[in-house]
Amino acid sequence: MRARQVVLATNAFPPLLRRLRAWVVPVYDYALMTEPLTPEQRDAVGWRNRQGLADTGNQFHYYRITGDGRILFGGYDAVYHYGNRIAPALEQREQTFTALATHFFTTFPQLADVRFSHRWGGVIDTCTRFCPFFGTAYSGRLAYAAGYTGLGVGATRFGARVMLDLLDGADTPLTRLGLVRGKPLPFPPEPARAAGIQLTRWSLARADARQGRRNVWLRTLDRFGLGFDS
Ligand SMILES: Cc1cc2nc3c(=O)[nH]c(=O)nc-3n(C[C@H](O)[C@H](O)[C@H](O)COP(=O)(O)OP(=O)(O)OC[C@H]3O[C@@H](n4cnc5c(N)ncnc54)[C@H](O)[C@@H]3O)c2cc1C
């Protein structure tokens, strides 16, 4: 395939531009879906409209009502596999689904008799500052945006506009933004990459268990602008 200009937006999958591999790691995210709720079950919860919900933990859950009245319940675990590994077998993780089911019934004790009909796992692209980064290659003929870290539904529209301005080579309000001009720190190579990610996950879980109190590792990351508080 030939093209004069190219936009690369391949999310967590191995970036076709090799240099980006230091900036993006694939992290597995998991979700459960219930059978459609009966009107009585919806009434018992009091969730009458289509509000999107999330809790405020570092390892947060997100939940939605689907068009056909099911609850989608996901999040909490964010699992990284050594060497940026992606494989279909990693999309099923029994211990995460069991944890999510337990958390669901804790959140909705009124729905103790509800069953799950679907479970899902897949990757999201994570970078060290937890929000997207941008750039160009091949003398400005290629623009890329990646690293949305699970927050891309609205932000990808912004990212697309940034990439079009970058391909134009134009000096615009978007291309002048610090967010667009600056890059997050790259991830270190393995094995430091996996060790750092595991330590961060462990620390986030610990902070959640201690009313949000962050340990030395998380405070150090905060100081360097790494993570959700960046
Ligand atoms: C379960 C879940 C819940 C989420 N909830 C929210 C939310 O509530 N709010 C929010 O803001 N964000 C949420 N997100 C994140 C959001 O969906 C993503 O950040 C966003 O879709 C990323 O958009 P993208 O265009 O970068 O990548 P994608 O939409 O994933 O598109 C990338 C495309 O590139 C293709 N591709 C990859 N490699 C190649 C290749 N080599 N050749 C050709 N094509 C390739 C892929 O097939 C794919 O079609 C959620 C994500 C998940 C998984």
Annotation keywords:
20% strand, 3 domains, 6 helices, alpha+beta, 230 residues, binds flavin-adenine dinucleotide
CATH homologous superfamily of the largest domain - what is it? D-Amino Acid Oxidase, subunit A, domain 2
Can you name the CATH architecture of the largest domain? 2-Layer Sandwich
Oligomeric state of this protein:
single chain
Unreliable runs: none
Enumerate the distinct ligands. Answer: flavin-adenine dinucleotide
Count of distinct strands: 8
Number of domains: 3
SSE run: EEHEEEHEEEHHHH
The amount of beta strand, in percent, is 15-25%
Q: What distance separates the N and C termini? A: 39 Å
**Cα shape:** globular
CATH class of the largest domain: Alpha Beta
Which radius of gyration do the C-alpha atoms yield? 20 Å
For the biggest β-sheet, the strand order reads 3-4-5-2-6
The CATH topology of the largest domain comes to: D-Amino Acid Oxidase, Chain A, domain 2
Structural class: alpha+beta
Question: What's the helix count?
Answer: 6
Q: Overall pLDDT, averaged?
A: 94
